[in-house]
Amino acid sequence: MANPMARSFLQVAASEEVAAPPLRVVQIEGLVILKIIKHCKEFSPALVTGQLLGLDVGSVLEVTNCFPFPMREEDEEIEADGANYQLEMMRCLREVNVDNNTVGWYQSTLLGSFQTVELIETFMNYQENIRRCVCIIYDPSRSNQGVLALKALKLSDSFMDLHRNNNFTGEKLREKNLTWVDIFEEIPIKVSNSALISAFMTELEADSPVSQCDYDRLQLSTTPFMERNLEFLTECMDDLSVEQQKFQFYYRNLSRQQAQQQTWLQKRRSENMSRKAAGEELLPEEDPSNPIFKPIPEPSRLDSFLITNQIANYCNQINGVAGQSFSRLYLMKALHENDKSP
Amino acid sequence: MAARDQTVLQFAPSSMSLSAKVHPVVIFNICDCYVRRPDQADRVIGTLLGSISPDGTVNIRNSYAVPHNESSDQVALDIDYHHNMLLSHQKVNPKEVIVGWYSTGFGVSGGSALIHEFYSREAPNPVHLTVDTGFRNGEASIKAFVSINLSLGDRQLAVQFQEVPLDLRMVETEQVGFDILKTTMVDKMPSDLEGMEASMERLLTLINEVYNYVDNVVDGRVTPDNNIGRFVSDTVASIPKMSPAAFDTLVNDSLQDHLLLLYLSSLTRTQLGLAEKLNTAAQIL
Predict the structure, then answer these.
(1) Ranges for the MPN domain (chain A) (predicted)?
(2) Would you state the pLDDT for residue A341?
(3) What value does the mean pLDDT take over residues B72-95?
(4) Residue A258 φ then ψ, to 5°
């Protein structure tokens, strides 16, 4: 008698895969953070990338190790080299018991200008092979201000569906209620360290109560950073206005085309009326060969969304730095007053 | 004549003052490899990569573990693996060369001499780093050694491992924030303002300490130390002397600049919101 509790193999195989719980947290090891910082800083201001290795456990994505990618020349032959390098590294790391599982990639950025079409393409490429992948963005220029500028991103599901169908018309976007905010999802990061390294760090901690990052944070000069931020911001605004002009052009063309269609239709109808009066054949009311009936392609809104994302990023950064500067300025003021008072 | 006939145990003098500097990535890497070592291995051995600066300081920047087999009298290192990893690492960073090797465990053991000999064929004057993961003396001891040849007249007798000063200052770790890397689990990365708050609190603590110290000295509770006194007066004097009016203008100008930037950014965001509504809400007739 078959045990009613035990399911046959066929049943298990036939049952649907339980949907994976949504990714809630990315857990990074301290080692990975240090490696990413080292790699990005060494090559800054050039932009570099690398691969993340780890485990996918429930709603937590653990990143336990990483390795950098060599700088890629613009050469076709190097493609195969790149793949070889990756395989070689993964094989070697597996021999020392490192998790051999790719969970994403990391890249460095300059002041947060990372939302590009290439990023989305890379995401889609990774998504085909790995169920859940994440991209970690590190900003070395912001980290000079004492902030650890590390972000974990992934594409939202609704956006991925749209992109797969390559369908970015206004209709579809309204249907799915997708705005530029919904393209990227930021996932909170948790940091974990093994007990051994935590013991080492506690021992090796310098004795001074104030550390280098405090010096960086309390620096008064933020002008170069703000200047560059504003420069990028204005460039992006220019790009955005170009995109908007494209849309205006499209709508103008569309309405002109519709007006032309109407006049043509009127003419046809009046002609038909006269023909009916004369007893001749009626001409069809549609003429697909006429160029005014050719549908004009609607420009994709993806670019304008990405630019909007970048602009929002720059604005956020400006807000953050300005807020910090206020605190510093008031601190200076208080210090100066204390100095002056008897 | 007699003096020359005497055989003297000679130490080859170290030609330059060698010291080593270790970056925190290396320590993290070593600990991680140790935690992941195969069950039968007692310790982990690996290669150190880095650069040698012109004044003789060895800058240890990166490392990778090399699988090895160790028995009571023999050590076997996977040399192919070592070369493959070296090539891969050099593709990313061609400036990093082999500067030595590391092993976990306290002190230097017998097999180490053989491994050191192997590495001295790879790099001139390799540095041997030992990382005591067992915390044998109740403290973390990370030591660096170089090998000195002991020769008796013309014959080479043995190799002595001599300790070199090791600089363990962890500047990058401080930048990341020790709090993040010290505990076993950090639930949330600190935001900008929280970090700012922490820094300011630390500054306040420092100022309070100095204040208390000066008070104690004035009241006679603590013997004054001239050096500290000079430090304090230098620090206070380093605040630039400006008339209050000039200082106020400076601060207010800065404040206004920042307010302007904030205004610009909120204006931009409003513009974005409007543009987005217009773009997607437009209906095609």
Answers:
(1) 26-159
(2) 46
(3) 83
(4) -65, -40
- Quick one: which of A322, A218, A143, A108 has its CA closest to B177? A143
Structure token pair of residue B57 = 């300081």
Kindly state the helix (H) or strand (E) to which residue A309 belongs, with its residue range.
helix A302-340
Q: At what angle do helices B79-92 and A78-95 cross, to 10 degrees?
A: 130
B164, B182, B200 - which closes a domain? B182
Angstroms from B238 CA to nearest CA on chain A: 12
Using CA atoms, how far apart are residues A205 and A182, in angstroms rounded to an integer?
42
B115-145, pLDDT tens digit by residue?
A: 888 888 888 878 888 887 776 666 667 788 8
What is the extent of the structural domain holding B216?
Answer: 190-239
Is B267 at the interface with chain A, CB within 8 A?
Answer: no
Smallest CA–CA distance from A168 into chain B, residue: B280
Q: Is the peptide bond before A45 cis (omega within 30 degrees of 0)?
A: yes
pLDDT above 60 (res A14): no
Q: Does residue B266 lie in a domain region? A: yes
Contact A147 B195 (CB under 8 A): yes
Query: Can you tell me whether residue B165 is helix, strand or coil?
Result: coil
Chain B within 8 Å of A70 (Cβ-Cβ)?
yes
Give the pair of three-digit tokens for residue B56: 């003789």
The pLDDT tens digits for A41-100 are 888 778 888 888 888 888 888 888 888 888 766 554 556 777 788 888 888 888 888 888
Pairing status of strand A60-68 against strand B155-164: unpaired
Q: Is A315 exposed, middle or buried (0-12, 13-18, 19+ CB in 10 A)?
A: buried
Of the candidates B92, B181, B276, which has its C-beta nearest A193's C-beta?
B181
Overall average pLDDT of the A249-268 stretch: 86
CB–CB of B176 and A147 under 8 A?
Answer: no
Say yes or no: B112 and B217 in one domain.
Answer: no
CB-based contact (8 Å) between A331 and chain B? yes
Q: Are residues B216 and B95 in the same domain?
A: no
Token pair belonging to B161: 């491992």
> CA–CA distance from A339 to each of A74, A221, B199, B242, B245 (Å)?
59, 21, 21, 11, 15
The whole-model pTM stands at 0.80
